[in-house]
Amino acid sequence: xxxxxxxxxxxxxxxxxxxxxxxxxxxxxxxxxxxxxxxxxxxxxxxxxxxxxxxxxxxxxxxxxxxxxxxxxxxxxxxxxxxxxxxxxxxxxxxxxxxxxxxxxxxxxxxxxxxxxxxxxxxxxxxxxxxxxxxxxxxxxxxxxxxxxxxxxxxxxxxxxxxxxxxxxxxxxxxxxxxxxxxxxxxxxxxxxxxxxxxxxxxxxxxxxxxxxxxxxxxxxxxxxxxxxxxxxxxxxxxxxxxxxxxxxxxxxxxxxxxxxxxxxxxxxxxxxxxxxxxxxxxxxxxxxxxxxxxxxxxxxxxxxxxxxxxxxxxxxxxxxxxxxxxxxxxxxxxxxx
Length: 338
Fold this sequence. Notes:
Helix content is 30%, strand content 25%. The chain is of the alpha/beta class and 338 residues long. The strands form two sheets. The chain has a seven-stranded mixed sheet, sandwiched between helices. Strands 9-8-10-13-12-11 form a six-stranded mixed sheet. Helix 4 packs parallel to helix 6 (210-223).
């Protein structure tokens, strides 16, 4: 079996999870380099990693570079992404900077792996909230074509990073101890509260935040249909890990709840958990640390024509980020593209 020199760029929550996923899935890595802003030693999943400072030279001989997702002008993918491609690496980027770049496929392997053909060396991983939504809608879209989506997300603090996880834990403890919770990561207290605010205000969709705009444009690109109408309200909730979403989808033709369940049960990477009479439905506490997207509360919306309501949950650090990136690399190997 051919093996590959792999670089993981970034050792935050997503980078650490990438290293775990590579090991768990026995990825054919000849060697793994861990890169970050500064050289240091990191303990991840019981193993000590010697982290190298990210530099142009660090990508010499790298076959596959997994960028964990620091975004913006000073982010790793903008600084080193295309440089790594020039050096011969396949770059799989978890960040937002190049998702809508026409040169760059935006891929969920179970849905649109064919978009990888003809790649230019740089592949984008979608936003975590988009990934779980399209995993649920894609098999239905193939049968009945989605016309309109109304989504509400309930996003865990792990999507912001370790500092946010610590802030939630510290605020809960402070409140329990009769103290005053301190908010640094978020503009308001997150413990025992919800914040309808993820990202920053966007000119693209006035009144919306960037997380909501991402769900619209990325869904259209992944499903290959620029006419799908998408609106979203993204909310940060006091959950440590795993995002939840309600999805109201309107289709071109009627699709019953039973048909939807059958299609979703046949979808790789999706698990149907749907028995409301027994209080059986997806919950973030059950999805955290797991690979699938879980979907339930599947029902026909009688308030509008050809509509379904669904509720889905997924680990945003795994399928929403690290796992999907590794699956892209695996799919490219399978397709003979690396």
